[in-house]
Amino acid sequence: MPESQGRQVKVTQEATGREVKSASLVPLQLPPLAEEPDRLADPRRGDVDEWGRSERMRALARRIYDPVYRRWFRVGWEGLEKIPTDGGALLVANHAGAIPSDAPAIMHGIETELDRPVYGLADHFFKGAPVLGTLWARNGGVVAHPENAYRLLREQDQLVLVFPEGSKGTAKTYQERYRLRRFGRGGFIEIAMRAGVPIVPIAVMGAEESMPILFKLPTLAKVMGVPYVPVTANMLAFGPLGALAYFPAKFKIQVLDPVRFDVEPDQPRYSRSRIMDESEAIRQRIQEALYEMLRQRRSVWFG
Amino acid sequence: MGRRVLITGLGTFWGGRVAQVLEARDDVDVIIGLDAMEPQVKLERTEFVRSDENYSILSRIVQATGVDTIVHTFLVVDSTQMAAKTMHEINVIGTMNLFAAASSPGSTVRDVVVKSSALIYGSSPRDPYWYREENRRTSTPRTRAERSLLEVEGYVRDFARDNPHVCVTLLRFSNVLGPDIVTPLAKALMLPLVPSVLGFDPRFQFVHEDDVVSSILFVLENEVPGVYNVAGDGQLPWSEVANIAGKRTAPMPPFGIRLATAPLRRLGLVDLPPELIDLLKYGRGVDNRRLKEAGFHYQFTSAGTVQSFAEALRLRSTVGDHHPAYEYQEDVENFFRHSPAVQRDR
Fold first, then answer.
1. B1 CA to chain A: closest CA distance, Å?
2. Are the C-beta atoms of residues A107 and A120 closer than 8 Å to each other?
3. Which residues contact B18 (CB under 8 A, 6 or more apart)?
4. How many angstroms separate the CA of residue B82 from the nearest CA in chain A?
5. Does B5 touch chain A (CB under 8 A)?
6. How far apart are CA B8 and CA B73, in angstroms?
7. Cα(B98)–Cα(B56) distance, integer angstroms
8. How far is Cα A179 from Cα A182, in angstroms, rounded to an integer?
9. What is the DSSP letter of B286?
10. A45 neighbourhood in chain B, CB within 8 Å
11. In A, residues 150-209, which contact B (CB 8 Å cutoff)?
12. For residues B19 and B62, what is the distance between their CA atoms, to the nearest angstrom?
């Protein structure tokens, strides 16, 4: 009976000693293949990418949002040139407004000015919500999971926007405006280190006043299964319409100097203390930039 | 000396297909198929042994035949096929008995391939979009199929740890589609209106049935111990899947689906297993690069798989089932295999 090559190799291995084979559930490190196989037929019909984003949908959303961006919030940028035009980068910003108005403004600004897509990391709450979740994903929303961020930054060289304060930032009441919350557990630093990309801190002014929270209804939030239920000044001013209508606060967005970490990427672990220090340093820089911008601001509505 | 292979679940699509391919190979001396059901495909030299569902006779078979390779394809991941108890017997108790037999003293088993499913990762909004083999699932398992798979993989891990001389490969398959296999997803896509969940359009990933068979053969030929995801490249939204299949979607309410579809289930029209409903809301993607790095080449992408399925669907709707169903008849099979009257070497 003829034997295949693979079988013969195995038999010799068996004769020389069984240590050659490791059967623990860790894969062998095999060398990558030299030749790339032919591209397979991929009969896609839509343009929804692996992150659920659709450029067609995004272009439409940009067209609808553009008047809001230009006429309503009159967004002004400072230091936009500090955002890399190629390669991955993690954009880190402060977060505010009951229904955050900062994420669309930042994404719209960068996508129209630099002509490169921005993926926004957010709580899984969005993905779990019908309709909203689909629209959110089609417009560049991605669930904030370390694996997702790593893949976007390291393997696909994309711009990724993250708000380390999370819902603690947007749930602030009006009295606490512009006082940054804890930056999570510093996960964003660890991801940037693993992916070997710079962090670009961004300070946003105006979002706080576009939809200020007067007080919250924790019991209703629990019943509805949402992070928080805000009662906003907009609701008092416009009635039920206020759930969606922002005040025309003047937006100012300042891009701070990028932070690079000279650490080896792709390490399984990074120093915890270093991560917390870097995280706090970035939080401080955004906080100080915000205070400086507030010192210069003469009017909430006209800047 | 060639290999002696034992295949569990010979009556299932996978077991039958793998046995068929192995039969054509010269370096495989003996193929033994085990199942409670009769084989669905025509087999030339595979020996079929009818067993009970949890393989209580397995250690005797392993000892008597001296098999060196076990291909464990009989894991049920479709909870609509049978009662929960039966599924537990097959998946958990069956696997337990299988590994007990394979690790008994004097066992000749050197290679074990287990067909698991990406279902083990679950499906929840917290998930990473591309699960890698070492990622932990983010949600607690809620369905029986998922729980039994987790138990099974626990047995596989224990066996691999206790028997370092055995090459254990665990394959986790994504949603399988193809011209021949019938899965809950394929059934859903064959309905006049494809069920979806209102307000959700999750990304889906598929693997072609041919890629499933060739990946099992690939790991049999190349010793690649470890856990591997098997899935086609790319992910596409469910609406696009329906579009390629030439169907419209019928949205179901996002809450209380089980309740809403109960009448349809009663009528036997649509039976959506609970794990499929989560999938229709949140989708699931797995990273297939580890198996590719080991040297495996896929024949189909996710979208290509759906296309191939859709083409088979169109053909079937015109000409009906193109290959007549094979019917296993024990006496006839035994005659061809064992009677001295049959001339085998011609």
1. 7
2. yes
3. B7, B71, B73, B213, B216, B217
4. 30
5. no
6. 6
7. 9
8. 10
9. B
10. 240, 243-244
11. 151
12. 17
| Cβ–Cβ contact A125 with B under 8 A | yes
Residue B225: the pLDDT is 94
Chain B nearest-CA residue for A41? B304
- CA dist., res. B212 & res. B215, Å (int): 5
Residue B90 tokens read as 């097959």
Q: Which two tokens stand for residue B270?
A: 């649509």
Band (pLDDT 50/70/90 cuts) for residue B322 is low
> Which residues on chain A are in Cβ contact (under 8 Å) with B126?
124, 143, 145
32-71 in chain A: CB under 8 A from chain B: 32-33, 37, 40-46, 48, 50-52
Q: Does A268 touch chain B (CB under 8 A)?
A: no
Determine the average pLDDT of the residues in B174-202: 90
**Distance separating alpha carbons of residues A176 and B147, to the nearest angstrom:** 46
Among the partner-chain residues A42, A124, A147, the one whose CB lies closest to the CB of B130 is A147
The DSSP letter of residue A48 is B
Could you say which of A1, A26, A124 has the minimum Cβ distance to residue B226?
A: A26
Please give the Cα distance from B232 to B285 (Å, whole number): 10
pTM for the full predicted model: 0.86
Nearest CA in chain A to B308: A43
Q: What residues of A are in contact with residue B303 (Cβ under 8 Å)? A: 42-44
Q: Residue A25 and residue B1: Cβ atoms within 8 Å?
A: no
Residue B324 has a pLDDT of 54
Comparing A249-258, A274-283, B30-39, B284-293, the range with the smallest average pLDDT is: B30-39
Backbone angles phi, psi at A114, to 5 degrees: -95, -10
Provide the strand spans (E) within A10-130: 76-78, 89-93, 118-122
Asked if residue B13 lies in contact with residue B7, where contact means CB atoms within 8 angstroms, the answer is no
First vs last Cα of chain A: how many Å apart?
A: 86
Q: Are A22 and B293 inside 8 Å of each other by CB?
A: no
| β-sheet bridge partners, residue A41 | none
Structure token digits, residue B191: 């309905």
Which pLDDT score is estimated for B326? 65
Q: In this complex, do A40 and B298 lie within 8 Å of one another by their Cβ atoms?
A: yes
What pLDDT band is residue B106 in, cutting at 50, 70 and 90? Answer: confident
Per-residue pLDDT at A3: 42
Q: Is A128 on the interface with B (CB under 8 A)?
A: yes
Q: Which residues contact B217 (CB under 8 A, 6 or more apart)?
A: B18, B21, B22
**What helix, strand, coil percent values describe chain A, rounded to 5?**
45, 15, 40
Answer yes or no: are the C-beta atoms of A18 and A10 closer than 8 Å: no
Cα B335 from chain centroid (whole Å): 31
Residues recorded for chain A: 303
Contacts 24+ apart (CB under 8 A), A59-68: A61/A139, A62/A108, A62/A111, A62/A112, A65/A104, A65/A108, A66/A108, A66/A112
Q: Which two tokens stand for residue A80?
A: 């936009």
Amino acid A302 reads F
Q: Chain A contact for B132, CB < 8 A? A: yes
Q: Average pLDDT over chain B, rounded to whole?
A: 88
Per-residue tokens: B240? 């696009």
The mean per-residue pLDDT over the stretch B169-182 comes to: 92
To the nearest 10 degrees (0 to 180), the angle between helices B94-102 and B144-162 is 10
Helix/strand number for chain B, H first, E second: 14, 13
| Inter-chain CB proximity A27 and B228 less than 8 Å | yes
Residue A21 has its nearest CB partner, among B1, B165, B282, at B165
Using a pLDDT cut of 90, give the percent of chain B over it. 47
